[in-house]
Structure formats: C-alpha cells, structure tokens
Hints:
The protein is α/β, with parallel strands linked by helices. The chain has a single domain (about 5-120, about 205-380), classed as 3-Layer(aba) Sandwich (Peroxisomal Thiolase, Chain A, domain 1), CATH 3.40.47. The chain has helices at about 30-45, 65-70, 85-100, 140-155, 160-175, 185-190, 220-225, 255-265, 285-295, 300-305, 325-330, 335-345; strands spanning about 10-15, 50-55, 75-80, 105-115, 195, 200, 210-220, 230-240, 275-280, 360-365, 370-380. A nine-stranded mixed β-sheet has the order 3-2-4-7-1-8-11-10-9, with helices on both faces. Strand 2, helix 2 and strand 3 form a beta-alpha-beta unit. It is globular and about 50 Å long. The two termini are about 20 Å apart. The mean pLDDT is about 95. It comes from Streptomyces antnestii. This is Thiolase. GO terms for molecular function: acyltransferase activity, transferring groups other than amino-acyl groups. Pfam families: Thiolase_C_1.
Amino acid sequence: MTQSLRGRAAVVGVAESDLGEVAPGLTHLDLIGQATARALADAGIAKSEVDGLFTASSYLPMAAMDTAEYLGIRPRHLDGTNIGGSSFVSHLLHAAAAIEQGLCSTALIVYGSTQRSDGGRLISPTRPDPYEEPYGPRYPLSMYALATSRHMYEYGTTREQLADVAVAARAWAQLNPAAFERKPLTREDVLGSRMISDPLTVRDCCLVTDGGGALVVTSAERARDLASEPAYLLGGGEATWHRNISRMPDLTLTAATESGRRAFETAGLTPADVDVVELYDAFTINPVLFLEDLGFCAKGEGGPFVADGGIAPGGRLPVNTNGGGLSYGHPGMYGIFTVIEAVRQLRGDCDERQVDGARVALAHGNGGVLSSQVTALLGTADALN
C-alpha cells in the first residue's frame, strides 16, 4: 500500500456469522452466507452491488469461485490469495488498491469455518515440510512452542507473563456477549492447565470454534453517503521472511517489523497514535512478539509490557478487546476478526468493552507459523485530518 491510498477506501459494513459451535449441518459456506447478509445490511448495500470478492479457505482450493457461486454474485474482480490467517487483512489492502484502480467499486471480504463442528481438525492444503516431518512436530503447536522457548531464553520472558496474556484476553471476553469463553480465568489457572507443547499449556493456545466474518469495503467518497459510520484505511503493509519454522531467521523476530513499519509510514502515524490494537493471538507468545515488532515496546520488553494487566481492561494499552483468539473465538483463521473489532471500536459500537475516544485502530494478521505478517491502520473521519 502506498501513501497515496491513505483515506481513499473505507470499511462500511462488518458482521460475524453464528459463532462458537453452530447448528448441525451448517457448512463453512453457510456461515459465509450469514456473515455476508449481515455485513451488507450493516452497510446498507444490496448484494447486487458487490463487484469485488476476496476470500481464502482451508476447505476449497478455488475458494473465490466456489464462494461467488454460493453467494449468487458475479464479481468483475476476484482475489483468492491465501497466506494463512493474515489473508483477510491482506485482502483489505488489496481491495483498497482495486477500488482505487477501478477494478471494482464494492468489495466483499469473507471467511467461514466449521472447524469445531468438524472435530477440531485443522485442514491444511499443503504437505508437511520434509525437513521437519521426521521429528514429528504437532503443527502448528510445536512451532510456536519453539518461538516461545527461545524468547524466554533470550529475554527472560516468564510463563507468568505469558499467562497474563490469556488472562487479559479473558477479561475482555467477559465484556463481550459474543465471546465463546467468558468464565473467570486466573494466572494460576493458565499455569496449572494441561501442558500441550512445552512451555505452552492448553490455556496458552487459541480456541477451536466455528465462525465466519465479512467486511464490505468501498471508496471513501461513497462511504460518506452510507448509513453506517465509515472506518477509513489509513495505512498498511505486508511482509514474509519464511514459510516453515526451521527457516525462520530469528525465532524472536517476525516480519511484523517490516509490515508495521510500512503501515505506519503510509499512514503518517506512529505507535503512540494508536488507541486500540487487535492482534492475531493464536498463542500467548504472539501478542508479546507483535507488540515488540510493531513498535509498542522494545525487543525483549514484551513480557513486562503485558504483565499484570498491561493489555487488559484498564491497562496501558487496550489489546484484543473482543477477547481475541484465546477467548472470543478462533475458527481456523482469525485475521478477519481483528478488522471487524477494530471497525466496531472506531464506530463506538462495543458497549462495555468500548475504548473511549478511539480514533485510530491497528489490526494485525499472522499466517502460517509466524510466517506472513500484515498490518492495517484504520481511523475515524477525525483521524484523516
């Protein structure tokens, strides 16, 4: 994304499908249909006006065509880019560029998964890495456990600090009626839960849920005439350094350093300007790494930054205000939900969990095993000035 796109496109409709564990017989496409209908109603836009479709799927190798067929639309622009859980934040940047270039005027970004109803199986269209497979890693748990262990060794990050990430997510989820897990959670609960891949316990790992989401994106000019409050795209950036964890250059440093820098440069902002942060928290190490790499704290200081309620309600920085993948929901790929929550915070639609005066929100997607990183900055009309 270039600085010339700043404020040129806006998200004008957001919605989730049914979440958690959905009714028997519903497919991932049914959840996409639910979310689409709700997002279009939120935007006040008819389905017939959608001429750009962006999606990714773990179920379908040609997801864009199958989704268009299911929804009954004939878009003139398709994007089926799949870079894992960050795909949908990437789609937001791509949609803005496509709208600016006249490739489409109304873009629909969608995702759906019935991973929980499918028995919790993680569907992967790719074969295991031949260099890693002989060691029998549990994908993706073992990979994130490696990064966690290295960060603990390198910087003294503690299991208690990681546990506080999960506790903060649960505190936010308790303010969100749509969250899947809302029971009280303490640091001791996290530390004492079943070990999954040392040093990560089951409470250090994201949920396995069903769910879908949808975003409607159009030009800033048109957005001003719609009923819903627009959330303007201010900046964005993408980056990847590896696909497999065995080729990650530094287990404590992610490509979010580059995606974040590009996002802030194109937006003309700094981390100090951000009021609310929505991060892809597949595991408790993720927010620690991303807060460092995006510039909210120095490298190695993520543990103290998140400790003792630092990112919980009332803390120094509101992070994952819907409860995140750790407590709100995680249907296979989570990235679209970071944007949905960011938009709702900017609109002031979050009731008990609302961050007062939110003008700038950051949504960050992560794909693969800390592989693809995509950062988007969104803002209110006031933030454009």
